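In keeping with the milestone schedule agreed at the kick-off meeting, the structural modelling team has produced records for the first pair of proteins. Each record is given below as a sequence line and a structure-token line. The laboratory manager (R.T.) confirmed that both were archived under the project's standard naming scheme.
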Amino acid sequence: MSEETGFTSMAGAKAEGEAPEIGFGMLGYAFMGKAHSNALKTLPYMMYPPVAIPKLAAISGRSESEVAEAAKRFGYKKYYTDWRAMLEDDEVQVLDNGGPNDMHAEPAFFAAQLGKHILCEKPLARTAEESKQMLDAVQKADIKHMVAFNYRFVPAVRQIRKLIDAGALGQIYHFRAVYLQEWIMPHYGEKKIWRLDKKVAGSGALGDLGAHIIDLAHYLVGDMKTIAGNTRTFIDTRPLPDGSGMGKVDVDDAFVAAVEFDNGAVGTLEATRFAGGRKNYNCFEINAEKGSVRFNLERMNELEVFWVDEKPKETQGFHDVLVTEGHHPWWEYWWPHGHIIGWEHTFIHEINHFLDCIVNNKEVGPHGATFEDGYKAAVICDAILESASTKRHVDVKY
């Protein structure tokens, strides 16, 4: 890696000899099931030569008609309505868990007992306690485990991490991040879906969106030591999906938090699903000794950079960098510069990394988020809820 630029090739993730087949068992067939399935099918011919060939061995879900249709649509060899039976299938070597939050822990315990590797969607679990139990289980089983914090696998985000690792930014002073969406505002007429139910989701915007920026803070800046947070629920009752009446919303619609990092940096975190006009606005900025960087997911092929000592001063300012050059992370696998990639490609990068760790017995971290990283994000989520409830600063204890 060049110390000046922080650039390095992402190549070299390949197995010795012919790439092995690794069987995936997918839990869930909706939003994340579709995203992960697309990545599994695209990976072998784009991340070429592949480190492994993902085999779509089985998919599971509660509704037989819907999971059968998903198996047909995505190309899974078989389907199950019992995830335990799916995990007992010898063709399944990896549990890819894209189910609701309350379906993360129990399948992980079962998969770990069977020695299956686990890729789990975020948040890892509903609480820090539940996350710690999952972490303990996978560590005891000595399997590969990763939380699907896919924004670590955006080329621009990885390039920022490379600049930090190379010392190009120097001491970090500030990290500020917001994740804004609008989809449960009143004019959308959203019913009380599972994401608005604490028993299923654990929290609202905090676990759904906040977990992402909390993980990015960990990944780019480091561990946090104090939290001061506030939460708000703007609409506390909504129509039940079955039309039987109204149900109480017992999770947050929005949160804000001020944090202090172990390394002395300070930061702010904010997430809401009540930001009119914001579709998927995951934006963060880092201010540091030698410069500043800014990223916005809605313009994911770009990053903005400011260098403190840039000459001449008369033209000094933020530069918009198009992160599509062949020397940028993962771009050797894609298109000529300027031919942008999209959100779905982050899952391809992510799963390819996980396969490399399985096949070549590599560590998932620091670039992949392990269950330990998922647990740390859950600790911060719980601390924010505690601070909001007590109206006090909370010391973080991992």
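The second protein of the pair:
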Amino acid sequence: MKTYYKTIILSDIHLGAAESKAKEVIRFLKHNRCETLILNGDIIDGWQLRKSGTWKKQHTKFFRLILKWASKRTRVIYIRGNHDDFLDEILPFSLGNFSICRDYILRSHDKQYYVVHGDLFDSVTTRLKWIARLGDVGYTALLRINRTYNSWREKRGLPYYSLSQVVKAKVKGAVSFISDFETELAAVARLKKCDGVICGHIHTPADKQIDGIHYLNSGDWVETLSALVETHAGEWKIIYYTDWLMQVEEAKSDQSNLMFSPVLTVTS
């Protein structure tokens, strides 16, 4: 059974990186549909593919699925991020219901949202690219350690534990960077005469008000596994894959129990 939304926004899937959760995002999309699908940057990880990354069948399967959506009247908008900056060579691009661009103005009922990946407003990725790439090496190493650690935890029946999220939450510089990033994006939305801003880039899902601007961040599909959805009533929600999957499995279990429950007959 599919759930229908007005808009689904995904970012930071990082196809090509070892830690990308392509299988999970495909499963999520197969259970949901929408009028507009926005891929808000870093969908393909060109940085990792140039180094040690690998393009897998699941990654191709992802694009086949979204192109199938585009052929069936879903509007697909791919916004370029910093890890897929190779797309600069073909921007802007449009073919039928599929388009690639730097940013986008999304109308949501009586409001307008400025949709952008966010790296263009990050001084590290724009002015000091070599530091950004050095940070990417460190982040990738942390994810590898995290993968090994969580494999050990899984064997012992322990839940997933994100090392990078703990680091971001505890390191003062990281917390300050996220706060500055969010404030700057809110200011940009105001300059664009928009009511809100929707971004990705920092792998930190959020739904908050910043100085009267609705700030939304779709998170990522490396660790958080989160998506932004807009209902047909204009309500925005953050969906976390682990919570969503639990609900799907519970619904399947309830349906199975209903199908095979014994029928009681009453005789007089």
